[in-house]
Amino acid sequence: MAKEVLTEAPEQAEALRARLSFLRLRADRLAGLEQICLELVSERSLERLLALIMERVTQTLRAERSSLYLVEEREGERMLVTRVAQGTTEIGVAIDESSIAGSVAATGEGIRLKDAYQDPRFDPEFDQRNDFRTRSVLAVPMRNRQGQVVGVTQAINKVGGETFTEEDEEILTAFSSQAAVAIENARYFEEQRRTFEGLVLGQAVAVDARDHLTSGHTLRVTEYAVQTGRQMGLLESELEILRYAALVHDQGKLSVPDYVLQKPGGLTPEEFSLMKSHAAKTELVLNAVRHLFPRRMRRIPEIASQHHERLDGSGYPKGLKGEQIPLLARIIAVADVFDALTSKRHYREPAADADVLAILRQEVERNHLDANVVDALEAALPHLVETRARLRQEEADAEDKGGLSGIANLHVITPEWQEARPGWKGTEKPPG
Amino acid sequence: MHWRMTDQDYGQLPEQVGRAEKAVQRLELLLDTALELSSERDLDRLLDRIWRRLTQVMEAERSSLFLVDEEEGEVWSRIAQGAQEIRLPLGKGIVGTVAKTGEIINIPDAYRDPRFNPEVDRRGDFRTRALLTVPMKDRDDNVIGAAQVLNKRQGGEIFTREDEALLLALATLSAVAIETVNLYQEQREAIDAIIAGLNVGMSGRDPSYGEHVYRVEAYCLALAEELGVPEEERRILRYSALLHDLGQIGVPDSVLLKKAPLTEDEEKEFQLHALKTKILLGKMGLSGEMAKVPGIAPFDHKRMDGGGYPDGPPQGDEIPFLTRILAVAAALDVMTCPQFGQEELSFPRAVQEIQKEAGKAFDAKVVEPLVSVGPRLPEIRREVEASYGKVRVDLG
Predict the structure, then answer these.
(1) Which of B22, B287, B296, B318 to mutate against chain A (most A CBs within 10 Å)?
(2) CATH code at A337?
(3) Chain B contacts of A191, Cβ < 8 Å?
(4) Are the beta carbons of A19 and B17 separated by less than 8 Å?
(5) How many structural domains does chain A have?
(6) Does residue B62 come out as left (phi exceeding 0), alpha (psi in the -120 to 50 range) or beta?
(7) pLDDT over threshold 70, residue A403
(8) Range of the domain at A42
C-alpha cells in the first residue's frame, strides 16, 4: 500500500513528506513555547523574569546571546531601556531610527540582518567593549494585548546557520507577546506589593511622628525583630508575617492622647495606664479589620498586640503566659525592649549595647523575656548594630532628601518648614 | 506531546499530514488561550474566559470548570458569569473524584457508566454522551480544580488520548492563571485591609474620622457613576477618598478634638492637615494605579476659582477631575455632619449651598449630577453608617 502511493505519485508524496516534517517541527516549537509561557507567567519577580526571558530566547532560537529592551519613561520621555546583566547600570536607547532596537520600536516592524556591520544603525560599541563579534541579528517588537509596543527582543548570532529565518521571526514574535504579558503581570504584582509596603510603612512612620522622640522606633524594632527571627532560622513566610506585625505593633498609639505621648518626664499612674492601653488598642483596631486581610495574614493582629506580654503572665494587655504568647510576639517583645533601652528618651540617654544585653538577661532571669530569643538577638547583635547605623543615616538623608523616614515630627510641618527643605518640594511623585 | 504522531508508514501520509495540521492548529489556539488567560486580573471574568475557551478549543458541546474549596471539602462552579454557584462534595461523583485524586476520567458513553448521574441532563434538554474530566493542577502539582467537556462536536464520538492531553494542557494554563489572579486578589485585599485598619485606628482618636471618610467615599462613587467615570478611575477616586484626611494624624488633639468652632489660629493649624496628607501620601511610594492618589487626595479644599488650601499647585484648571469630585463629596459631608459644632444642614440645603458655588469653589460639571444624586444621599448615608458600624470599635 505504501509503495503503491509512492510509485503512483512520487512528487505528491515528496511534497506531503516535506509538509509533514515542517508541521512536526512547528508543533515541536509551539509546544516548547507553551511550556516556556507557563514558566514565564509563574515568575513574579521582574528581575528574574527578564533574565529568564533572555535565557529562553537564546535557547529557543539557537542564538549566541539575546537582549531585551523595555519601553519606559525617563524624565518625561519614552525610551527603550535595557539592563545588560543583574546589577549593571541601565542603558537608554531613543525610540527612533538611530539604532536597530529603536527602529523596531518606532516602526513596530521586525528586523532581520545577516551581517549587522552592513547596517548603519548598528552600534559596534558593545562588541568592542565585550570582545564580541555580532553577525546575524533578529529584533522584533514586544506587543501587549492592546497591540502597543512595550519593548523589543533581540537575538544575536544564529548558531549553526548564517542568519535567522522567517520562521524564527514568527516564533520570536509569538514568544514576545507572551513575554509582554508576563512582564506586565510581574510589574502589576510589584506595584501592588510596593503600594502595600508604602501604606504599612507610612502608617508606622506617621504613628512614630506623633511623638518626636520615638521617631524611627517602629522601623528599628521591625529590622531587629526580623534579624533575630532570621538568626532563629524562621522560614521566609514567617519572617514576612513577623515583619508586618512589627510594623503595626504600635498602631494603637494612634489613639493615645497627645499629652501622654509628648509629656516630658515621668507619667502619673493614670497616664501610664493610658500609654499601656496602646497594645490593647492595636489588637482592637486590627481585629476589627482582621476578616478583610487575606487568610495568611490573619495572625497579624494577635502577634502585633502581644509585644508587651511577659512569660510569667505579668504583662499586658491579656496577661498571657509562656507558650500562650506566639513566638513571633515574643521576638517583637525582645526587639521592642532592645530599641527602647538603646534609644534616647525624654528622661534619659541611650544605654550601651553591653548594658542593654545585661538587662535583657535579667529580664530572662525574671521570666519576662524568652531566653532563646535573647540568645538569637545577641548572636545577631553585629547585624543589629549595623542596621541601627544604617537607619540613622537613612533618617538623616531622608531629612534632607524628603524620604519617608525623614518625617520625624508631624507637628512641626508648615509651609515654611517645607520651604526650608528643598528636597521636600514636588515629591508627590513616588521615586522609581 | 501526545497528539504528535510518530508513524513511519508513508501510506498514511495524507492522514498524518491532516493530523499534524490539526495538532499545529490546536497548539496555536492553546498559545492564544495562554495569552488571553494570563492577561486577565479578575477571577470572575477569568473563569468565564476559561469556560468559553474549553468549549472552543476542545470542540465540545458543553464544558464546565470546578474549583476546590479545601476548607469546605467541596468543589464549586459558576457555570457562566452571574449564574448560581454549584457545590459538590470533594471525592464524590466524577468531578469530585478527579478533583480529589488528580486522575483523568474519560467516559465514552455516559449512560452506560454507573458513575454518571443522569440528574444533570434531566434539568434541561441536553443529553450527555462522551464525558472527559481532567484535574487542574498548579505548578506544584496540587489539584486546584477540574475541567470537564461534554460531547464532541467534530471528529468522532469519543474523546481521544490527544483530547486528554490537550484538555490537561488547557487545565494547567487555567490553573496558573487562576493562581495568579488569586494572588492579585490577595494583594488588593491586604491593601484594603491596611487602609481600613488605618481608618479605624484614626477613629480611635477622633470618632468622626472613619464615618466621614466612608461617607465621602460613598458620595464620591455615587457622583462618579452619574458622571460616567471609568472603572479604573473610580478605584483611584475610592482610594483618594479613603486617604484624603490622613494628615489629620499630625493635627494636635487640642484642635482636632475641639467640639466648638475653631479660633483663627486653630483653623490655620487644622488646615495644615491637607499639607500633611500631601507629604505623607507623597512619600509612601504608592505604585501602579495608586500612584495617582497623592496627586488627588490632598486637594479637596482647593477652589476652582483659586484659593483654598494647601498653597501651591494645583490651581484652577490644573485641579484633577477626581479631586473636583472629592471636593464636592467632602463638602457635602462637612455641611451635613459638621465636626466643630457648626450648624448642621439638611441634604437639600447642603446641595443648594454647593450649587451656589458651582463655577466658583466647585466645578459646575461635578455639581450638576447633584440634582439626581441629591435625593439618594440620605439612603446612601444610612447604608454607609450601617456597614461601618460593623468594623467600628470603641477605643475609649
Answers:
(1) B287
(2) 1.10.3210.10
(3) 287-291
(4) yes
(5) 2
(6) beta
(7) no
(8) 14-188
Whose CA is closest to A107, among A90, A95, A123, A122? A95
Q: What ranges make up the beta strands (E) of B153-279? A: none
> CB–CB of A231/A376 below 8 Å?
yes
Which of A140, A155, A188 lies at the terminal end of a domain, its last residue? A188
Dihedral angle at the C-alpha atoms of A178, A179, A180, A184, nearest 10 degrees?
Answer: 110
Residue A233 cell numbers, joined: 532560622
Query: Could you give the angle at the alpha carbon of B367 between the alpha carbons of B363 and B370, nearest 5°?
Result: 165
Closest CA to B326 of B242, B252, B392: B242
* A199 contacts B34? CB cut-off 8 A: no
Nearest to B23 among A27, A34, A203 (CB): A27
- Do residues A389 and A253 both lie within one domain? yes
Whether A46 and A170 share a structural domain: yes
Given an 8 Å threshold on Cβ–Cβ distance, is B288 in contact with A20? Answer: no
The pLDDT value given to residue B391: 66
Residues A267 and A370 in one domain: yes
Is the Cβ pair A30, B184 closer than 8 Å? no
Instruction: Answer yes or no: do A280 and A408 share one domain.
Output: yes
Residues A337 and A397 in one domain: yes
Indicate whether A279 belongs to any domain: yes
Alpha carbon of B279: minimum distance to chain A alpha carbons (Å): 7
Chain A's closest residue to B39, CA to CA, is A181
Q: Is the pTM of this model over 0.95?
A: no
Q: A188, A219, A253 — which closes off a domain? A: A188
Q: What angle do CA B219, B222, B228 make, to 5 degrees?
A: 135
**pLDDT per residue as tens, chain B (396 positions):** 444 444 455 578 888 999 999 999 999 999 999 999 999 999 989 999 999 999 999 999 989 999 999 889 999 987 644 557 888 899 988 999 999 999 999 999 999 998 888 887 777 778 899 999 999 998 888 999 999 999 998 767 899 999 999 999 999 999 999 999 999 999 999 999 999 999 999 998 898 999 999 999 999 999 999 999 999 999 999 999 999 999 999 999 999 999 889 999 999 999 999 999 999 999 898 998 899 999 999 999 999 999 999 998 999 999 999 999 999 999 999 999 998 888 999 999 999 999 999 999 999 999 999 999 999 999 999 999 988 876 666 765
Element (H, E) at A140: strand A137-143
Mutate to test the interface with A, among B46, B198, B265, B309 (most CBs of A within 10 A): B198
Query: Does residue A99 sit in the same domain as residue A223?
Result: no
Whether the upstream peptide bond of residue A317 has omega within 30° of 0, thus cis, is: yes
* Range 277-316 of A in CB contact (< 8 A) with B: 277, 281, 284-289, 292-294, 296-297
In this structure, what CATH number is given to the domain that contains residue A146? Answer: 3.30.450.40
Residue A200 lies in a domain: no
Domains of chain B: 10-182 (3.30.450.40), 206-391 (1.10.3210.10)
Chain B CB within 8 Å of residue A177 CB:
yes
pLDDT of residue A119: 95
In this structure, are A45 and A170 located in the same domain? yes
Assign residue B155 a region (left: φ > 0; alpha: ψ between -120 and 50; beta: otherwise): left
Query: What is the C-alpha end-to-end distance of chain B, expressed in Å?
Result: 66
Task: For residue A404, tell me if it sits in a domain.
Answer: yes
Instruction: Indicate whether A193 belongs to any domain.
Output: no
Q: Does A11 touch chain B (CB under 8 A)?
A: no
C-alpha cell of B295?
A: 496627586
| Of the listed ranges A24-28, A224-228, B232-236, the one predicted with least confidence | A24-28
Q: Are A404 and A271 in the same domain?
A: yes
Q: Measure the CA dihedral B186/B188/B189/B194, to 10°.
A: 130
The closest CB to that of A23, out of B20, B287, B393, belongs to B20
